[in-house]
Amino acid sequence: MKPSQRLQEIEDFKSSYIKKIQEVSGEYLAESSVLDQYQALAEIVMDKTASQWAKTRSQYDEVPHKRVYLFSIEFLIGRLLKSYVNSLGMEETVRIAMAELGLNYQTILSQEADPGLGNGGLGRLMACFLESSATLGLPFHGNGIHYKHGLFEQKIINGEQVEVADNWLRHGYPFEIKKPHESVVVKFYGHLRSERIDGVLTFVLEDYEPILAVPYDIPVKGYHNNTVNSLRLWSAEPVEEFDLPSFNEGQFLDAVRHKSEAEAITQILYPNDSQFDGKQLRLKQEYFFVCAGLKRMITRFKRYNNDCLDEFADKICIHINDTHPALCGPEMMRIFMDEEGLSWGDAWKITVNSLTFTNHTVLPEALEKWPADMMKFLLPRIYMIIEEINRQFQEDLRLEPGLNELQINALSIIQDNQVNMANLAIICSHSVNGVAELHSKILKEETFNGYYQLFPERFHSVTNGVTPRRFLINNNTGLRDLITESIGTDWINNLFALEKLMNYQNDPPFIDQFNQIKLDNKINLSNYIKEHNHITINPDSIFDIQVKRIHEYKRQLLNALQILHLYNYLKANPHIDIVPRTFIFAGKAAPGYYFAKEVIKLINYIADLINKDNGIRDQIKVVFLANFNVTLGEIIYPAANISEQISTAGKEASGTGNMKFMMNGAITLGTMDGANIEIHEAVGKHNIITFGLSADEVTHYQKYGGYSSVQIHENDPRIQKIMRQLIDGTFGHLDNFQSIYDALLLYNDTYFVLKDFDAYTKAQDRINELFKDQNKWFEMSLSNVAYSGLFSSDRAILDYQKNIWKTL
Ligand SMILES: *Cc1c(COP(=O)(O)O)cnc(C)c1O
């Protein structure tokens, strides 16, 4: 852009912004609140986005490409205002205009609520996929739930997690458009009546409870292109708003109760990550957004296809993100048969050919199994269809040579009076995939081996990815600008081009700038820590970071115990010098997950013990940052030197935090688990630090025994000391961390924390040595950025297109 054009653009923006402020607030700029200033900017970007949105829709209708609908119970989208500004190409203009108007752009951006409509990686993945598909110009849409309250806000009080209700809609949400005319009635409960209509046995649901599903659309803007896709989130409302004057008191109260019962369905996101919660309300949520999303989609499809469903599976792909939307299978069957008059056989063909399924975890406690009675009561017709799918499937199996009844039963959708949702999803889909190579291998060889034997061609693997726009370009602007100055702009849409950065590994000015950017990002995080935790951090220390949901399998406990040991070591050797280290944690525990909350408490107690001890000369500091979410991640990932990815091998399906860290130049300290294995391969063994049991070794111990944590304890005085400290009053009461002590020693350490302890401390020692050689460290860090191309969600989307959705 010519400078004169830029100047004009800035002037135009300023005048339209001043005008907008008046429209939203009825105030002049000088009188307006920061919230008004935020609202006004939000409206400006929505106006600009909306015109592209309409155009994208009509283009898709003119040239009908195969569409992909991502069905997911979570979309963890993060704040959007800056994303819209940047993807519209307005970044410079807005930044300069705000400064000239005397406004603080950062403060304005911070007014936006971060919609916590997901728990962690699974929901964030869907947000990255939406961003990537829009940037690639592909017709993809999200379909999910408009939770009134997202994931709770975490406070830390006296070292413990306290949950506060999230209220992201408090000030309204400027990036959604309510579409009441596209509402759908979803039917729960009721009784089935069968009748013959034209000789065909037909089922009609009677006495059901109708709930209105009302869609809210959020535009998903591609980066520097004209594509705007949609994320559609459904909200529950009563079907009939009551008519106030005509009610007597009793009816009024009934009506209010009815309204809140209806609204309950989308009131709250269940806060469990990798843990099944079998509440009936959750099952209602699952059917609710599946039913509404499919109904609208099929209605639209018929409108553009002469009321004919023949080509449905050629033009539509419905992706089931983990098992929560698995009722898509039986619900499509219901719509096609009961509403569209198709035969079972025709309906089944379309259903299977349109559905694809991604599994996200192999933890047995996470796999959804609904009580058959509950499902039958809540969704009588759906349950009937599931029974019939299962009956026909078993009939087919009996024709297979060599399968006995035991094996057939192991593949049943309904087992022990429970509906196994993974089995349902696999049987109703033509593709099943894991999210990293190891995970997909475990699915084939262990978790879903029976199905793999039957349908080997259905099984695939697509390694997850993250969007570089959010996790590098928009939130590590220093590194972004250095990269672009060095290698041009290609990399923004082709992250593999980052490999060209390796040409700069011996370029002194580049090295200085690269290191300075990391330091700036660390100072930025230090300021945040100072403000929120009142702890002073040395920005030259190694920033060693573990941020993710708190879960036993992710082993924050291993990290905490290692820190306690390091502290003991420094106390015992007061003249030893180590490279100063800042251990940073963040993450939420599910409110009902006692053990995970104890781990948070332990980390905070260790932090307190260490941070207050002058005897160790500030060589280590420990920080727990409250309320980890996408927004906090945006300032944490760019500031990391070490990315802690230390799950028990075989348990972390992929991880995506590992990819965000890598892209920002952190070195992974990890087990050979999930996508760490592919990071290892991409970056080379000299640029990552791995340790610990392999997945095969873990499986072997689990199957055949042979691991004794007590024995490890007996032979390692360091472990004896830290274990004693858990219960000897070091942290207050004598029995303070008894549950952790018991899990590790009495119950033989299910997650192999003590087994991997020694290897982990040695890996930490290596980091201490490596960091002393700053040239070497720079090379490692640069290599991580340069070889992160594989971990862009653009690549993941292209993989899905080629191998699963067949949309290329
Ligand atoms: C990326 C991300 C996650 C996933 O992190 P993992 O380390 O892969 O578990 C969770 N929460 C948020 C807010 C994220 O941005």
What does this structure look like?
- With 808 residues, the protein is an alpha/beta fold.
- The strands form five sheets. Strands 1, 2, 5, 6, 9, 10, 11, 12, 16 and 17 form a ten-stranded mixed β-sheet that branches. It has a six-stranded parallel β-sheet with strand order 20-19-18-21-22-23, sandwiched between helices. Strands 13-15-14 form a three-stranded antiparallel β-sheet.
- Helix 21 (556-572) links the parallel strand 18 (542-547) and strand 19 (581-586).
- Helix 10 (328-339) packs antiparallel against helix 11.
- The radius of gyration is 27 Å and the shape is globular.
- It starts with a helix and ends with a helix.
- Bound molecules: pyridoxal-5'-phosphate.
- The site of pyridoxal-5'-phosphate has 13 residues, from helix 6, helix 23 and helix 24.
Which descriptors would you attach to this protein?
808 residues; alpha/beta; Rossmann fold; six-stranded parallel beta sheet; 23 strands; 49% helix; binds pyridoxal-5'-phosphate
Topology:
Elements (H helix, E strand, L loop, with lengths): L2 H23 L8 H29 L4 E5 L9 H7 L3 H10 L4 H5 L11 H15 L4 E6 L7 E5 L2 E5 L12 E2 L5 E5 L2 E7 L2 E7 L2 E13 L6 E11 L10 H16 L15 H25 L7 H4 E6 L6 H12 L4 H11 E4 L10 E3 H7 L1 H20 L5 H6 L3 E2 L2 E3 H8 L2 E4 L2 H11 L1 H6 L4 E3 L6 H6 L3 H11 L20 H26 L8 E6 L8 H17 L8 E6 L7 H18 L8 E6 L4 H7 L5 E4 L11 H7 L3 E4 L5 H8 L5 E2 L4 H10 L4 H7 L1 H11 L10 H9 L10 H16 L1 H13 L6 H13 L3
Parallel strand pairs: 1-2, 1-11, 2-10, 11-12, 12-16, 16-17, 18-19, 18-21, 19-20, 21-22, 22-23
Antiparallel strand pairs: 3-4, 5-9, 6-9, 7-8, 9-10, 13-15, 14-15
The structure holds pyridoxal-5'-phosphate.
The site of pyridoxal-5'-phosphate (PLP) has 13 residues, from α6, α23 and α24.
